[in-house]
Amino acid sequence: MRNGMRPFISLLGLLAALAISAGCATSRSTIDSRKQERASVYSSLSPEMRAMVDAGKIKVGMPMDAVYMAWGKPSQIVGGETAQGAHTTWIYEGTQLQEYRYWSSGPHYGRRHGYGSPTLESDYYPASYVQAEVNFQDGVVKQWRTLPSPSIR
User: Fold this and answer.
1) Is the dihedral of CA 26, 28, 30, 33 positive or negative?
2) What mean pLDDT, rounded, does the chain reach?
3) pLDDT of 138-153, one tens digit each?
4) Distance in angstroms (rounded) separating the CA atoms of residues 146 and 133
5) 90/113 Cα distance (integer angstroms)
6) Phi-psi region for residue 138, left (φ > 0), alpha (ψ -120 to 50) or beta?
7) CA dist., res. 42 & res. 66, Å (int)
8) In which element (H, E) is residue 7 found?
9) Cα dihedral sign, 65-67-69-71
10) CA–CA distance from 96 to each of 13, 69, 121, 150 (Å)?
11) Comparing 79 with 97, which gets the higher pLDDT?
12) Is the pTM here over 0.70, yes or no?
């Protein structure tokens, strides 16, 4: 591949990864569509819970349906049991771009054909990580936490 094409391909990878990660964000239209999908549940929520859903926020004591409307479908659902009984954990994943650097000494196209001096190249790949966990017991939030994105290397 010609060296002139490498930045273009890296840019395409970067744009694709940004499109993937943008699709994971909770936007006003996605909250509204989930509220319409579960309209009867939304109308039965307290005014405080409806305000939380509208803002895309969750809190302890919130029912599963309200969390779904606020944050969307989880990436994974994990079941378990503690001394207090059965529980369910919803795991939400985030995506960030991970840079991969490498040395390249691709063909040199100019007056002389052959290979040029090594150059430092980079490509970007989407990398998933656990962004948040929500623990439910008896269908309501018992605890939740958000986690920081991993540091970029």
Assistant:
1) positive
2) 82
3) 999 999 999 988 875 5
4) 6
5) 57
6) left
7) 7
8) helix 5-24
9) negative
10) 12, 24, 19, 9
11) 79
12) no
Q: Dihedral of CA 76/133/94/46: which sign?
A: positive
124: its two tokens: 């970007």
The token pair at 151 is 């540091």
Domain ranges of the chain: 5-26+72-146
Structure-block tokens of residue 86: 């059965």
User: How would you label 54-84 residue by residue, b for 16+ Cβ within 10 Å and e otherwise?
Assistant: eebebeeebbebbbbbbbbebeeeeeeeeee
Q: Indicate whether 24 pLDDT > 50.
A: no
On the 0-12 / 13-18 / 19+ scale of CB atoms within 10 A, 134 is: buried
* Cβ contact 74:67 at 8 Å: no
| Tens-place pLDDT, residues 100-122 | 888 887 665 655 555 667 888 88
Q: What distances in angstroms separate CA 54 from CA 48, 74, 88, 112, one per listed residue?
A: 10, 18, 24, 64
E-state strands within 53-139: 76-82, 85-104, 107-108, 114-115, 119-137
- Residue 152 one-letter amino acid: I
